[in-house]
Amino acid sequence: MEDKNNIALSVRDLKTFFYTNNRCNKAVNGVSFDVEKGKTLCIVGESGCGKSVTAATIMQLLPTLSRIEEGEIKFQKDDKIINIEKLEKNGKEMREIRGSDIAMIFQDPMTALNPVYTVGFQISENLKYHTNLNKKEIREKCISLLNDMGIPLPEKRIDEYPHSYSGGMRQRAMIAMAMACNPKILIADEPTTALDVTIQAQIFELMDKLKKENDTAIILITHDMGVVAELADNVAVMYMGNIVEAGTADDVLRRPTHPYTKALLESVPVLGRGKNQDINPIKGSTPDPYNRPIGCQFAPRCNWQTESCDVMPEITQINETHQVRCHKYEQFFEKYK
Amino acid sequence: MKKEILKLRGVKVHFPVQAGVFNRIVGHVLAVDGVDLDIFRGEVLGLAGESGCGKTTLGKAILRLVEPTDGEVKYISQDDNETELTSLEKKDMDPFRKKLQIVFQDPHSSLNPSFTIFGSLQDPLKKFGIKSKEERRKIIGDLLEAVNMRREYMDRYPHEFSGGQRQRIGIVRALCLEPELIVCDEAVSALDVSIQAQVLKLLMQLKKEKNLTYLFITHDLSVTEYLCDRIAVMYLGRIVELCDSEDLYNNTLHPYSEALISAIPVADLDKQTKRIVLEGDVPSPVNPPKGCPFHPRCPKATDICKTEVPTLKKYSTNGNEHYASCHLIDLPEIS
Hints:
The complex is a heterodimer. By secondary structure, chain A is α/β, with parallel strands linked by helices. In chain A, 32% of the residues lie in helices and 24% in strands. Chain A contains 12 helices and 12 strands. In chain A, a hairpin with a 5-residue loop joins strand 11 and strand 12. The longest helix of chain A is centred in the middle third of the chain and has 18 residues. Chain A is globular. Chain B has 10 helices and 12 strands. Chain B is globular. The two termini of chain B are 20 Å apart.
C-alpha cells in the first residue's frame, strides 16, 4: 500500500445529508478516498451527484440545513492528524485550516469575488489572518502572487476591482488567493467550466506548475472526461452520492469497469476520432434524490441490470489501486486481461 | 450538385457604445465585421470560436433577431428564387421566418414559465394559419413523440421538466413550422454529458428524417467534429478559417484554429498532444488590434501581421476547398 506519510487527506465513509421540508437528501452517502501529496485526484460525475458537496464538506462550508452524518476526514498537518469533521464549523482551529492549509477555488469567479473590494485587498485578507507579515510585506507578496499567475502589470492591477478583470484573469486572481498561504491541499470545484478552452489551457498549465513546485495535493472536481485525461493522477467517479469506481487515471480510462464509467466515456464525442465515431447516450436521467432506486443507484439506467442489482453492491478491490462498486464487474474486467 | 440555401455577403453588426449625459455614441462594438458565408442545403455547418467572437450575433443576424448594420443575407428557395432578407419590411419577413428557425442556448430561460408547453408552442402555428385547436394539438403532439417525449406533456409547465427535456421542447418549437434551416445556438452546451449525447443523436436523426440544414453554433470543437460537414472558425467578428470538418483537424491552416484544437482536453490517454497555450484574452471588439486581429496572441506573428489585415483566401487541401485568412500560409492560392 501507499506510504502513510504521503497522504495529505484521507476521507473515510463520509455521509453528508441535507434536510428540507421534512425530507432527507443523502447527497453524499458513504464516500472514501485518499489524496496524495503532489498528486491530482479528479472527482467526476454529472450534476447532482454530490461532488461539490463532498468538497464543501471537507472545507466545512456546508449550509445550515445539512450536516455531516458519519465518517472521518483526516487531515495531516505537519505531524499531527486532525479530524476535520470533529472541529466546530466556525471555531478557531477550523478557521486556521481553512484558507491556509486547505484552500478552494470556486466554479464561478464572477460570483466568488466581492465586487466592492479591490482584488489586492481580497488576496491580502488571507495573508493578514494566517501570517505574521506586515502591511508592506503583504502587498509585496500579493504582487508577486499575481505575477506568478501571469497577470500583466501586477503593481497596477492589484488596486483594481474585479469588474475590470476578464473572466480568465478573475479565475487567476482566485487561484492567487487560494495559493497565498501555500496550502497543502487545493480543492478546485469546476475551475474552468465557465471559461473558454484557450483560457482553460492557461489555467491548467498554471495548476500543473503549482503542483510540481509546491508539492500541493489537488482535488479537481469536473464533469469533463477530457480534463480528467489531461490532468488526473487518480480518478474517482461519483454517481448519486457514491463513488462507483476509483483508481489511477490509467485504470479508470483504459480499463473502465463500472457500467456508468463506460457509459460516460462513450457519451462524449472525442476529438480526432472523426465523423464516424459512435456516441451512445445514457438512457433516462439521474433519479430524484428523494425517490432513489433501491440497491444499485445506477441500475435503472444500466444495460446490464439483473435481479442481483436490487442490493447495493459493496466496493470491490480489483487490484492495488483499482476499486469498483458493481456486482458484475468481473465480466467487464475479463476483457482487459 | 450542392445548392445554397443562404448567401451572406459582407454582413456587419455594429452595436453603438453610448456614454455621457447625452448618450453620445463614443464608439462601436464590431460584433460581426464583414462575414461572407454560403450555407448549402442539407449540410451541417459548424460555427466555432471563443466567447465574444460574434458567433451568436451572426446567428441572430441571419434571422434578423439582431438587425445587421450592413451587408446582404440572401435566401434561395428550393425553386431558385433569391430574396434579400435584410431589406424586407418586417411584415414581409414572415414567410421566411417559417423557413428559418432557431434553438436557443439556455433551455431554462427560453420557455415562458407561466404558459404550458402547448401554450408556448401554439403561437407560431396560430400565426401561420392553423385555425383549429385540435389540429394544433395534433401537430405538437406528433412532434413531441418524434423527440421521444409523451404527448400528454404538452399540458405541463416548463418547471416540471429537466434540462434535457426542455431542450427537446425547444427543438419541437423550432420544428413545428417545418423549417428548412435551423440555427442551433449552443444547443447542447448547458446540458450534462449524458443528456448532451441524447440531444445530439436526436438532432442528427431529425436532420435525416426532415431533410434539414443546420447552422450549429458552438464553442466545443469535439462536438463540431462529430456533427458537422463544414466548420467556420470565427475570431473577433471575422471568419478566419472555413473548410470541411476533417480538413480542419488534419490540415489546419490558421494558427488560431491550431491553438483552439490543441487546447481541447481529449478523453483518450493515447491521444494526448502538447497544448499550445495562447497568451492573454480575446481583445476588445470595440477597439480591435491593427493588422491581423489575432497577431497580439499569435505565436507565429511577423511584421506584416501587425500592419496588414489578411483577407479570406481560397486554398486547396485534400482536393477540397479550404478558406483561411493568414499571411503565413505557403500554399498556392486558388482563384
